[in-house]
Structure formats: C-alpha cells, structure tokens
Amino acid sequence: MPHRATPRRTGHLLPLAVADALWAELMANSVFPAGQAFTGFPADPQVGYVLLGARAVPTVKGVGGRWHVQEADVRRAAEELRAVRVSGVGLVRVAPFRGSLKAGQREGPALRWRQRLGQEWARARVDAAPGRLLRGSDHLPHLAGIDWRRSLMERTGAEAENTWWLPRTLVKVLDAAEHAEERWLLAARTCQRCGSVADQPEQWRVQAGSSWQTICPGCRTTTLRPYNGELEGHVYSVLSKKRASLEVSGWRCAVCQEAPAFAVDHCHEHGYVRAPFSELTGPDGNRVRSLV
C-alpha cells in the first residue's frame, strides 16, 4: 500500500493521540527515532507545553476539556529536529549519574534528562538480569519526543559497573531541549503586563479562553477597558513611532473580549490599524503565539 502523508492543515488543532501519530510519521527514517511525545511520561500537557526536540510546543485545552496542540507547531518542531546535523560519531556517558533522582523524589514535568536516565539506570540494575538492558521498559518512553532507548549503548567493564552512553548529537539536542524549557518556564513566571517574576510558573497563571496567561495580582486587579475603535483610521507606521499611542496593555483583546491586549493588528497591504489583540489570540480567533 502506498504511503499517505498526513495532510497539512493551517491552524488545525490535533488531539494528543493524533499528534503522537503525526510526530512518528514526520520523524520516520530520521536519526532521532520518535517516542510517545504527547502521551508518554514525562510529558504533561497540563503544564502548558510539551517538549519536541529543542522546541516547547504549547498545549491548548479544547472542547470537552481535551488537550490539543497546533499541527503547525508539530511540523515545525519536526523540521527543526530533522535539520540537525550529526556532529561526529562520538558517545557520551550518561549513566550512572551522580545527581540522579532519588526514590520517592517528586519527578515533575521538567526534563532533567540526565537525572532521569540515572534513575532508569539504577532501576535496570535492580530489575534486570546482569548484562540486560530495559530497552522494552515503558516507564520512560521518550525524552523531548525522542525514543532514547533506540540510541542507547551499554558498556561493561571487567571490574567497574555497567555504563550507559548516548550519541553526542543526541546529547546536544537534549541539552538544547532543557534550555528551551528553562526559557518557557521563565516566560510562564513573568507577568505579561508589568514584567515582575513569580516564584513558581503556576503561581500567577490565569486561564484566558482555552489557554493561559501570566498576570500578577497587582495587574489582575486593574480593570481592562474595552476597545471601541479608538485606533481606527490610524496608520500603523505612524503610530509605531509614538510608543505611547501603541500602549495596548490596558485594553481587552478585541477578538476574545477577555484577555489583555498584547499587540496591535494592522493591514499589511494598506498599513491601517485594525485592533488590539491578545498574545494567544489572533485577528481570526486562532492562537498565533506562545509564551516564548
């Protein structure tokens, strides 16, 4: 039967199981084998993102409370990961790792891939026969959407304990994924109005439609004014030179009428301003930007 690629649909939201299938299809025959990026541990859509390679893909709660992701985000992440060039054939030792998660320690959604592999290595020593890897274990089916088990190498020393190794290129990708996650978490802690930073990502998060925004308590008590066409007839290029005229943080989004406005939409053909809209809602009502 001939292969049929999943059609590209701009702005289409995918349930997580469908996104898993698309991710596997897009990464087929890649040097980075796909894992259960959206439905397999440690992914948790409720925190607002899922890591795919070095990209944090925002999650959206749809009708019926089911989580979704934008198809375009999945495709973009796959393109970026497939474009990574293999840098040599060297291996990097990844386990045992001194900073491994301890038994009973809260794991959470953060990647911390070295600690997780150290924990898997310790589990393998207890559960597996000597010289046998837990390659079939489903406890950690992926790291940042990549099935690390298919790239894992084990070395056995005459006197030393067995060690686990991964290709250097994969290690670089996983390190980049951690950095992307750190940037996303910092943005999730930062108030989108005043720029103050919370102690925890979930501390100031408020729901805005199907997505989330970060608004500190002080800014949350500020009443947003509805947009009533105050910028109609103005040319964007002129207003952009007058920063005060483009201050939109006090307005509600002209589309959803709930979230605080983040930017001013304008016609790229004629240059006239249309209306202010939120960071998570575009002029057509679709999510157009993420927190990072």
Summarize the structure.
The chain has 292 residues and is α+β, with helices and mostly antiparallel strands. The chain has helices at 16-26, 71-82, 113-127, 168-189, 217-220, 236-239; strands at 13-15, 49-52, 55-61, 67-70, 91-95, 153-155, 163-167, 205-208, 211-214, 261-266, 273-278. A hairpin with a 5-residue loop joins strand 3 and strand 4 (67-70).
Structure description:
The protein is an alpha+beta fold and 292 residues long. It is built from six helices and eleven strands. The protein has helices at residues 16-26, 71-82, 113-127, 168-189, 217-220, 236-239, and strands at residues 13-15, 49-52, 55-61, 67-70, 91-95, 153-155, 163-167, 205-208, 211-214, 261-266, 273-278. Strands 1-4-3-2 form a four-stranded antiparallel sheet. It has a three-stranded antiparallel sheet with strand order 5-7-6. A two-stranded antiparallel sheet has the order 8-9. The radius of gyration is 23 Å and the shape is elongated. The protein starts with 12 loop residues before the first strand and ends in a 14-residue tail after the last strand. Residues 1-5 and 280-292 have low confidence and may be disordered.
> What is the ordering of alpha helices and beta strands?
EHEEEHEHEEHEEHHEE
What's the pLDDT, averaged over the residues?
A: 79
Which ranges are low-confidence, i.e. pLDDT below 50, for 5 or more consecutive residues?
1-5, 280-292
**Based on CA inertia axes, which overall geometry fits?**
elongated
Radius of gyration: 23 Å
Number of helices: 6
Strand ordering within the main sheet: 1-4-3-2
User: Which sheet architecture does the biggest sheet show?
Assistant: 4 strands, antiparallel
Helix-strand makeup class = alpha+beta
Strand-residue proportion: 15-25%
DSSP, total strands: 11
Helical fraction equals 10-25%
